[in-house]
Amino acid sequence: MATDANTKDKVKFNLRGVLFETKRCTLCSFPNTLLASLDSNSEYWDEGRGEYFFERDPGVFNSVLNFYIMHALHVPKNICGSVFRKELEFWKIPVSYISECCWKQYYEVDETADINDVLRTTGDEIVPSSKEENVSYDGIRYKTWVALDNPNISKAAMIWNIIYTAVVIVSTLVFFLASLPDHRSELYFSTLQPAYVNYTIPSEKLRIYYMKDMDPGLFVVEYICMVIFTLEFVLYLIVCPCRQEIIRSPMRVITILLIVSMWVTFIFEFHKGKMIESQSTAIIFMVVRFFTVLRVVLILRLERHFRAFRVLLHAIRASLKELFLLYISFSITTVIFACAIFYAEIFYDGTYDNLFIAMWWVIITLTTIGYGDIYPTTTMGYIVGAFCAVCGIVLLALPIAIIAANFAGYYTHNSARMRHLKSVREEAKSATC
Q1: TM segments (predicted)?
Q2: What's 153's DSSP letter?
């Protein structure tokens, strides 16, 4: 009788030919799960064999049974996280039962998915927006758009992006050369020479910018670069399948600001003699000209050519939350050490006259720059300075470690992704032969 009772209490499971056996009372520990709700009327019940048959992974099922016995769910190391997640959904086991030691392994699949999503949306594959209708993948418009936005799509696209990058570099070089006094001449563009200047120009550098123009040769190169930037953007605006996406691209927004500022500056150059007569219009001229420095940012288009550079940008972007917390910690540390050094040197004049100067010294010390313009002179000040310097080393090491860890993750996934895409292309090429 005891043997019959034990046999009746046992339940068998067949998972792709792998048999498992346990007691029914063991499954009742978690009544809301699938195994606890099984009976002879279940769709999985095999009357002839006297067992439940499941077309599921037997490796995961071993962990599922251990969960009912140990009341703790552990993730198998040889099982993909996404597979284990789907198995839990099938067996109706809540993720809250996963043991703490397996949290990292279980949620790594989410981190991997996030990284792959970023790499997919900024990788070599470009797909037009679904908002744009009647887009032909074989049309000239689509191919031109892809060539302008992705240098790796064809040799022609690569050549154009190299030329565009060279134009950006030349334009940046002209911008720097124009700041040299030897490359500036007396006003010759302006149709009107300044009759008088009714304000005091505060510096010689500003006076050179106001009273002199860049050399004609540099001006011609600047004009050619400006025209190329404009034509490239106009062409992109024409062929882009979804123009609303342009304002969502930081690089395209920067290009718009650059083109507008360059053309406005170009127009101002012919009226600069009149504009600099008034301080307010002179300031407007310099503010508009300041935005032409955005041409330097266009060098970031190189990230399309170098995947490692692209991965680095992704790693920095992924580290923004941690870097912000680090910035908060840095600010708090600055305030604490500023107060400490101020009161440590409060009995001596000529060093830390106020807390703002003390904060300046702390920032320079924490960042290990150490100009030497201000330094402690007391024993207590030396102690505060020593602790401040040590804290600076620790604070600087943290962002490097965070960015390096994210870079390693993105670089590993990007390398695997590139190898996979290469294998897919080779298979497609061999299939067509």
Answers
A1: 158-180, 217-239, 251-270, 282-302, 323-343, 355-375, 382-411
A2: S
